[in-house]
Amino acid sequence: MPRGSELRTLGAVGSGLAAVACALLPSCGTRSSSPDLPAVVIGASGADLFAHEFTPDHGLGPLYNATSCGGCHRNPTVGGSGVDEKQVVFRVATIDSHGNFDDLTGRGGPIARNHTVAELGYGCALRPGVPALANAVSTRDTPPLFGLGLVETIADDVILAGIADRGDGIAGHVNWVDEGAGRRVGRFGWKAQTVTLLAFASNALRNELGINTPDFPNDLLSGAGAEACAGFHRGPEIDGRSVALIRDYIASLPPVAPDATADFKQGRDVFERVGCTGCHSPTLAAPSGPVPLYSDLLLHDMGPSLRDGFVAGDAKERDWRTTPLWGLRYRKRYTHDARTTDIGEAILAHAGEAEAVLKRYSALAPDDGAALLAFLRAL
C-alpha cells in the first residue's frame, strides 16, 4: 500500500481520493457493478478502501470520528461492531420547549465528531465534540455490517407485510424515505432511516470521516473557522466509483452463522413461546432465499427506558428498528446506546410494544431463562 508521502503526489483534494483509489485498486477504471468483474476483485478493491487510513490531503476532516471505515467496524474482525465504548457515535440536536427538533445539520450536527485534523499536525482551530448549540445528545453504538448485502435485497413489500396486529400490542411501522423519484422503506440504521447500502456508505464517509461524497457533497461544517482548516472542501472529495466499491465490499460481507456446536433447541423454543418472534422474525424472504436475520426491520415503540428524544423521519422518540440478532454472540455491548454488556439487562430495557413479552420473560423458570440466554449467545 502506498505511503502517505506517495499519496500526496496523486493530486489535489478535489480529485485526490479518486487517485488514491486508482493507486490502491487493481480494477481502477472498471465499473464496480460490472457483471463480468469477479466478486473477489470487487471485495478486495473495496476492502482496500474500507481499511485505508485517510488524511486531510485526501479529504479527511476537518472534524472526524475515525480515519478509516475499519477504525470503528472491527469487532471481531473488519466489518464488525465497535471494540469498546470508544466506538460510539453521538447524535446531537436542539429540542426547544415546544418539542421542535433540529438536528443542527450544517451547524455542527447531526453527528458530533470527536477529533480534529489539528491532532494530525494540520492547521485547524475548530473544537471537536458536541457543538455548543446542542442541548440533546443520543449515543449510538457502532453496528456490525455482516449480512447487509442480503438485507438490501429484501423487497419493500416483504417488510410492509409485517405490519399487522400480532397480538400483545405489537404492530410496527416503517420509516418511509425519499429515494429518487419516489419513496422506499428504510432498513439500515438504528431508526431505519436509510434505504440502500450506497447511501449508508456515502453518509458514513461524510458524517464520520468528514469526506464529502457525490450524494452528500457539502461538509457538515460552515463558516470562516471551518474554511481555514485542512480537510475542508466544497463539493465531493471522493468519486462515485470509490463509494460504490466500498458499498460492494460491505455487501460482500457474509452473515454470521449460529454456533454449530451449541445445542440451543430449548432456548429457541422459549424464544418463540415468550413472543420474541413478534418483532425478531427468524427469517425474511429474499430472492436468494430466506434471510435469517431475526428482525422484521420495522420500527417499534420500545418504551420510556429506550426513549432518546430524537426523531428521524417517521421514527419517533421511542421508535427503534428491530435489531437483527444474527452474530449477536460477537457483540460486546447491547441496545442502541451501548448501555450494557449483559444481554439480560438489554432485554429488561424493553417496554412499549414489548411489554407483554417482557412480563412473560420475567416470569420464566430459571432453566428456561438460562436456555433463552444461551440461545441468544449462540447466534
Low-confidence stretches: 1-44
User: What Rg do the Cα atoms give?
Assistant: 21 Å
Mean pLDDT: 87
Tell me what portion of residues adopts beta-strand conformation: 5-15%
Which structural class is indicated by helix and strand composition? alpha+beta
Helix content: 25-40%
DSSP E strands, number: 10
* Coarse morphology: globular
Largest sheet: 4 strands, antiparallel
N-to-C SSE string, H for helix and E for strand: HHHEEEEEEHHEEHHHHEEHHH
The count of helical stretches stands at 12
Distance between the termini: 36 Å
Short précis:
With 379 residues, the chain is of the alpha+beta class. The chain has helices at 4-7, 13-24, 39-51, 148-152, 156-160, 197-209, 224-227, 240-252, 265-274, 343-348, 355-362, 366-378; strands at residues 63-64, 88-95, 101-102, 111-112, 115-116, 136-141, 176-179, 182-185, 299-301, 319-321. It has twelve helices and ten strands.
Protein architecture, described:
With 379 residues, the protein is of the alpha+beta class. It has a domain at 4-144 and 196-252. It is built from twelve helices and ten strands. The chain is globular, with a radius of gyration of 21 Å.
Structural topology:
Blueprint: H1 4-7, H2 13-24, H3 39-51, E1 63-64, E2 88-95, E3 101-102, E4 111-112, E5 115-116, E6 136-141, H4 148-152, H5 156-160, E7 176-179, E8 182-185, H6 197-209, H7 224-227, H8 240-252, H9 265-274, E9 299-301, E10 319-321, H10 343-348, H11 355-362, H12 366-378
Antiparallel strand pairs: 1-5, 2-3, 2-4, 2-6, 7-8, 9-10
